[in-house]
UniProtKB/TrEMBL annotation:
Reactions catalysed: a 5'-end ribonucleotide-tRNA(His) + GTP + ATP + H2O = a 5'-end phospho-guanosine-ribonucleotide-tRNA(His) + AMP + 2 diphosphate + H(+)
The species this protein was found in: Cherax quadricarinatus (Australian red claw crayfish)
Keyword Transit peptide (UniProt): no
Cofactor section: Mg(2+)
Phylogenetic placement of the source organism: Eukaryota, Metazoa, Ecdysozoa, Arthropoda, Crustacea
EC numbers for this chain: 2.7.7.79
Domain Thg1 C-terminal: 166-249, 425-542
All copies of domain tRNAHis guanylyltransferase catalytic, residue ranges: 34-162, 293-420
Protein's UniProt name: Probable tRNA(His) guanylyltransferase
Coiled coil: none
One BP annotation, GO: tRNA modification
Family designation: Belongs to the tRNA(His) guanylyltransferase family.
Domain of life: Eukaryota
Subunit field text: Homotetramer. Interacts with MFN1 and MFN2; functions as a guanyl-nucleotide exchange factor/GEF for MFN2 and also probably MFN1.
Family annotation (Gene3D superfamilies): 3.30.70.3000
Length: 571
């Protein structure tokens, strides 16, 4: 006790002798009475000193391949597209050391020492997931030419933490074995189809067969030797970061040698010691291990509580630089807003459990029905939504921006937040609209000062420092004869997308978070269905009027009164 008292006294004396001079850095988000809702957000940091593997899976890859008429069993163009996209992701995220992909699966490896984004799992996952999706769409014409991309892929992601080098090796070996088994089956299946078998007959022939039997069928019935197939099909694509020395000439004519990283592709065996001892060096000794079932325990899952509102908020990564690079109009670019709204609309059309979304600037929030029957897997939900959003952002770029070339693929990060009741959800949405109002007023005033030619950016920032809403309104009115309240509600209030009347439709409550269902409905032309009839407005959602006029959005509290009610809840 005496030791503790001495430590406290010593600290107090230091504070008296050397008063603190540092200031607390405040958040850049809008300050309002609704800001308490930030307390519902979680960091979800990953344990230190673990390998981080972000595993991405293209949902319904077979359906995607069929819709795009990809060559079976393998389309080299798509494989090259995947390799280029993986390389783009690894070039953007310099801390990635290894990537691996086959068919519709992509894996990215961060080293144990990474502190990127303070090791926040959702931020790592969604940034990689969105960039992979947008890269696939952006680079599609480079490999498929004039063949259109019918519908962008939706990518689902998970995060895995491996405490040692052996676990990492076992995981990568397991994924390569999955590639081998999948490719062997598909090779035999499509070879039988080419021989004249129907799809059903080919499936019956292969039903219950083992690896050796499939090899025998391929050799005896199709006259093909699987061992002679290309390694890129059998082993998948490995992307690895290496370091090379480059000679750089300085302004004084002197040359220096600097190390720079580059990404190389290879087709090696993860099961062999050579890769881990010669190519990708590990600190700890490892060996081939056939037992990999234990790896399931290392998946980092985010389980979401039932009967809570799920909000997935998406934010653009580095959009200040992105907007400057693509010369967005200031303070607001109608094309950018339209592009965001189109992407959000497609998300709501694909995922009927999303009942409401709100967007402003470079962010969008998607509200999922609190009684939805989807699998409440946080990582899969946020990755599916952010990947489709990013893909659609790129997919619609040329239609919206016309003659402006998209110079690089954008990325978005996302987080999932749970709100326990209607009041908290409303306060969250009010907070985001208040943020929209405060930021837009500042930006409108700032860019009017700069574009007038009388102020530099630094001078405009100094003039607005410490001002409140009344001061900014006065500047706009006195110096530029502009009434802020007369500005377009699109800029002042943001965009609200909501379903026309979900209360009278059972679709949104009885379907699962199922992409294939939504795609089928859209292909059948059911976009006018109640579940997909989405309304766009730019109105106030802080007051009560919006909600009282649309009671179906928040619904009523569901409470089980009988045993039958419990059965209905579990359906």
């Amino acid at each position: 006790m005496a030791y503790i008292l001495r430590k406290i006294l010593h600290r107090r004396l230091l504070e008296i002798s050397f008063p603190r001079t540092f200031q607390i850095t405040l958040s850049k988000m809008a300050k309002s009475k609704f800001e308490y809702v930030r307390s519902f957000e979680t960091e979800d940091k990953l344990d230190p000193r673990h390998w981080i593997v972000v595993a991405l899976q293209c949902r319904n890859y077979d359906r995607f391949s069929e819709g795009q008429n990809l060559k079976r069993p393998n389309d080299l163009r798509f494989i090259q597209l995947v390799e280029a996209s993986i390389k783009a992701v690894m070039e953007d995220f310099k801390e990635l050391v290894l990537g691996y992909g086959f068919a519709g699966e992509f894996n990215f490896v961060f080293p144990k020492s990474t502190t990127l984004y303070k090791r926040r799992g959702p931020k790592l996952l969604t940034n990689l997931c969105s960039l992979m999706a947008s890269s696939l769409v952006h680079k599609w014409p480079n490999y498929f030419g004039s063949e259109p991309l019918c519908f962008p892929p939706v990518i689902e992601g998970t995060v895995h933490l491996f405490p040692d080098d052996q676990a990492l090796r076992d995981y990568m070996t397991q994924r390569q074995l999955a590639c081998h088994y999948c490719n062997l089956y598909n090779t035999v299946f499509w070879a039988l189809v080419l021989q004249g078998h129907t799809l059903e007959d080919a499936a019956d022939v292969l039903k219950g067969t083992r690896e050796s039997e499939q090899n025998e069928i391929l050799f005896s019935k199709c006259n093909m030797n699987y061992n002679k197939e290309d390694d890129v099909f059998k082993k998948g694509s490995i992307a690895m970061r290496t370091w090379k020395q480059a000679t750089v000439s300085g302004p004084d004519g002197l040359t220096t040698h600097r190390n720079h990283s580059c990404i190389i592709n290879m087709y090696k065996d993860f099961s062999k010691d050579h890769f881990w001892k010669e190519e990708f060096l590990l600190e700890q000794p490892t060996k081939a291990n056939a037992k990999t079932s234990y790896l399931k325990a290392f998946e980092k899952k985010i389980a979401l509580l039932p009967h809570t509102w799920i909000v997935v908020r998406i934010d653009g990564k580095g959009f200040h630089k992105f907007s400057e690079r693509h010369k967005f109009a200031k303070p607001n670019d109608d094309r950018s807003i339209e592009l965001m709204n189109k992407a959000a609309l497609k998300v709501m059309q694909h995922f009927p459990d999303v009942v409401l979304s709100y967007g402003q600037s470079d962010e969008y929030s998607f509200v999922i029905n609190r009684y939805s029957k989807m699998e409440r897997h946080g990582n899969k939900i946020m990755s599916s939504i952010v990947s489709l959003f990013a893909a659609m952002y790129v997919y619609n770029w040329n239609n919206v921006f016309e003659n402006v070339t998209l110079e690089y693929s954008p990325a978005f990060d996302a987080r999932v937040v749970l709100y326990p009741n209607n009041s908290c959800l409303r306060d969250y949405l009010s907070w985001r609209q208040a943020d929209c109002h405060i930021n837009n007023m500042y930006n409108t005033c700032f860019w009017m000062l700069v574009q007038s030619g009388n102020y530099s950016r630094r001078e405009a920032e100094e003039k607005l420092r410490g001002t409140v809403s009344k001061d900014k309104r006065a500047i706009l009115l006195n110096e530029f004869k502009r009434d802020y309240d007369a500005e377009d509600a699109l800029y002042r209030k943001g965009t609200i997308l909501f379903r026309h009347d979900c209360a009278s439709s059972t679709t949104s409550l009885k379907t699962t978070f199922n992409l294939s269902y939504a795609c089928d409905e859209l292909k059948k032309g059911n976009s006018s269905n109640e579940a997909y009839s989405v309304v766009k407005e730019h109105t106030d959602i802080i007051g009560d009027q919006f909600w009282t006029e649309r009671p179906w959005l928040l619904g009523t509290e569901q409470c089980a009164k009988t045993v039958d009610d419990l059965d209905n809840f579990s359906q």
